[in-house]
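Input sequence (162 aa), recorded before submission:
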Amino acid sequence: MKTHFPLAWLLAGAVLAGCKPHAPALEVAPAAAASQPAAPVSELASLRGYLGKYLHEDVSFLEQGVLATRLKALLGPRYPDLLANLRTVGPLSEQDGVLYITGNRPHEGGSEAAAVVIDPRQDALRVWLLSGGQASEFQDPGRSVDWPRDVRVMQENARAPG
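Predicted structure, token format:
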């Protein structure tokens, strides 16, 4: 009786070579963020590059660019008043993601002042303009932008008898 031992080993090896060890399945996280459209980024977000800068440092974002265009549309004939009332200003500042700048007309801070508030998340503007001692507000329609604390203090000071 002849045993075909080497042939049996060869067949067993061939069968086992086709079998692969069972590795745990690789779990791939769904690419939910990639499949959802990104929220549009407001052009106003580009103003973040001016944070901490003063207008007199060769920065004219109130007179050129996206903010100037939006302010002209929002204020119409009052835009020159805004510029005049922001001749003496602090730097562009931020509170809770909202950008703002405040200022006044030189030597007329009690009766000629202004604040511009920019909310890039809502793509919205809100402006407070004190001219001749009378306050006016302008805001993009359908938006609600809160006044930052510094602007509220400025408004309260303007209302205070003095």
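Checked by second reader. The longest helix spans residues 5-17.
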